[in-house]
Design goal:
There is one protein chain. The chain is mainly alpha-helical and about 280 residues long. It has 4 domains: about 30 residues; about 110 residues, no CATH class; about 45 residues, no CATH class; about 45 residues. It is built from 10 helices and 3 strands. A 3-stranded mixed beta sheet has the order 1-2-3, with helices on one face. Strand 1 and strand 2 form a beta hairpin. The longest helix is centred in the C-terminal third of the chain and has 49 residues. The protein is extended, with a radius of gyration of 34 Å. Keywords: Coiled coil.
């Protein structure tokens, strides 16, 4: 053990981490979630690499290029939780690119600062390396990831009013699930009508998972609708192409009936008619 580079505690910790990872992997295989975990791990690794790249760029630029924000503050928040979601996709030519989904809760100034740092990093690369980078295309759909609990004010937008969240909760929860008959007395004693902000906040936090589940279901329905619209558009394109082919065929058949052919037929028909006796 004297010649070993690692201590006994480090070896025990590494073995424990290995067996925990092995156990979790077997459980995911049993539940059929190994592919989903692989995709999520790849996305997380991509965000961590980007965070490390942005931190390096922040340390290398001047203080004036940080839009008036302290360098130490930016280094603290430049983690994977504060970066947009990137999914790999293929364009019409078969080239790979990244679909970027922004975070809805981030301020525009913070997004612009991240984009500026990306441009600074890209300018520092050689032309050969720039050609190897994948294109990044920002899509309209936002990421479903929420903001961290300790998110600073210069990053996060103003929070939604409690009343808006309560309206979402009331729409998502049927009256029958309240457990008591709906009457004037029950409405007066209900936490939403008591006027207590603390009770409202507790209600919102307690039903946050329910709201997120409804949002996820709505997002799935939107995705299915987009798929159906794409299929309908493809059918319309095929039908338009078929109509063009039919119109071309009709035009071609009409051109075959030339005037010379018609005049020859008329001459032959007139020759068969007998002249009257004089």
């Amino acid at each position: 053990m004297d010649k070993c580079l690692w201590s006994l505690r480090q070896i025990e910790g590494a073995c424990k981490t290995y067996f925990i990872s092995l156990r979790d992997s077997e459980r995911r295989k049993e539940k059929g979630k190994d592919k989903e975990h692989a995709v999520n791990s790849r996305l997380l690794s991509r965000r961590r690499e980007r965070a490390a790249r942005l931190k390096k760029t922040i340390r290398g630029v001047k203080e004036e290029a940080l839009h008036g924000i302290s360098r130490d503050k930016l280094l603290k928040v430049m983690e994977s939780e504060y970066l947009s979601s990137e999914e790999s996709d293929l364009d019409e030519d078969g080239n790979s690119f990244f679909k970027v989904r922004r975070l809805r809760w981030q301020r525009d100034t913070f997004r612009e600062l991240k984009d500026h740092l990306e441009y600074v990093h890209r300018d520092q690369l050689t032309p050969q390396y720039q050609a190897q980078l994948k294109k990044r295309e920002v899509v309209e759909r936002f990421s479903s990831r929420g903001a961290p609990e300790d998110c600073p004010k210069f990053v996060r937008r103003n929070k939604q009013p409690v009343l808006c969240l309560l309206l979402i909760r009331i729409r998502a929860t049927p009256l029958s699930s309240l457990g008591t008959p709906v009457s004037r007395q029950s409405c007066r004693t209900h936490p939403a009508a008591s006027g207590s902000v603390d009770n409202m906040l507790r209600m919102v936090l307690r039903n946050q998972k329910t709201i997120q589940a409804h949002v996820a279901e709505l997002q799935k329905e939107i995705n299915i609708t987009h798929i159906k619209l794409d299929a309908a558009n493809r059918r319309i394109v095929r039908q338009e192409a078929l109509l063009k082919e039919m119109a071309t065929a009709v035009t071609r058949n009409g051109a075959d009936l030339s005037p010379s052919t018609t005049s020859q037929d008329n001459t032959a028909r007139n020759a068969n008619i007998k002249k009257p006796f004089v």
